[in-house]
Amino acid sequence: MAPGANPSHFGMRNPPTLMYASFSPARHIDPVRGTLVGGLMHDQRADSLEDQALRPFFNPAEMANTSPAALVARLRKASYARQFDQLFGRGALSDPGSAMQRVASAVAAYQRSTEFSPFSSKFDAVMDGRATFDASEARGYEAFRDRNRGNCVECHSLGENRGRRALFTDFSSHNLGLPANRESPFYRMPASINPDGAGFIDLGVARDPRHAGMEGRFRVPTLRNVAVTSPYMHNGVFASLGEAVRFYTTGCVPGNPDRWAAPEVAAGRECRKVGRLKLTARDTADLVNFMYTLTDGWYDPATGLPGPMQVEPMPPIIGGAGRIASSY
Ligand code: HEC
Questions:
Q1: I want to staple 143 with a disulfide (CB 3.0 to 4.6 A). Which of 41, 115, 150, 317 is the partner?
Q2: Tens of pLDDT along 31-60?
Q3: In angstroms, what is the span from residue 40 Cα to ligand 1's centroid?
C-alpha cells in the first residue's frame, strides 16, 4: 500500500505494476468464457493506457490535483514543459483540455517503450538458451504448468501473447476468495476518500454496475517482477509469495486448516480452480523459487551479458503459511 501526494492519504488498493501493462488488450467480454478480459487497473476499469494515465492525477488519495487547469499550470513550470511544445507544437500546454490529452499520450508512449517490457529475466535467458534453471526452479516451472498440481498457467498463461514472450497473465478476472486486508490504512481514511469507512467492501470488477455478477473479481496480474513487488494481491493482504501459494493450496479446504480469514466476497469464489491445490511444502518452495526467476535485469537480451539483478541476486523469501500481511 502506498501513500499519496498527501502522505497520510492511502488509496483503496495495492498499486499494481505498470511493467508489461502495454500488452493488455482492449477491454472486452470473452464470448466463450463470459469473463471480462483486458483493460487496465485491478478492476479493468480503464480502457487504455491513455485512459489509465489520467486517473491518478486527480484521485484525492493519489496525486490529488484539483483540476486539469491546476495540473497544467504546474506542468508549464516543469523543466520539460518546452518539450511538449517541440513535440505537439507551440502552445501545447495552453488549453487544459487538449494539454491533458497530450499528457496522457506522452505517459502512454513512455509505457509502451521497452523500459516497461525488457524481457530480461532469468526466465527469458533460459528460454533464449543462455541460462539453465537450477533444480528447484525447474521443478517450480513444472508445477506451474502441471494441470494436476499448480495449474497456474490456467490464468497466468504463458503462450497467449501472439507468439511473443510469456506475460504470465491471460488478462481475465477471477474471484479467488481473498480475505479483506483489515490492516489497510484505507479503512481509516476520511469520508472524502473512503465514504464507507470500516464497512468498505471491494467488489472489484462489479464496482461498475454494468458488470453486476462479477463481484470480487480482479484482473490476473503478470507475475513478472513479482519477487520485488510485495505485498501481494489487489489489497496487499499477503506479505510473501509463500503465503500466496499457501492460500492457493488450502484457502478452500473444508475445515479451513490454516485459519484464513473469511473471503471479502464469498459469492462466486472459484474454489474449483484455486484454494485446494495439491501442493507439498517442496512444491511451494519450488514455485516461489521459480517466481524469483521472473525478475527483470538478470541479463541483457541483446548481448547476453549479466544484468544488475544477476550480480546481486535477491534471496528467496518463503513466508509463514497462514499469516496475514501486517506491515507496509
Ligand atoms: C483461476 C485463475 C488463477 C489461477 C489458476 C492462479 N492465479 Fe494467481 N492470481 C489470479 C488473480 C485473479 C490474481 C489477482 C487477485 C487479486 O488481486 O485479487 C492473482 C494473483 C497472484 C499473485 C499476486 C501477484 C501480485 O502482484 O500481487 C501471485 C504471486 C500468484 N497469483 C501466483 C499464482 C501461482 C503460483 C499460481 C499457481 C499455483 C496461481 N497464481 C494460479 C488468478 C489465478
A1: 150
A2: 888 889 999 999 999 999 999 988 888 888
A3: 16
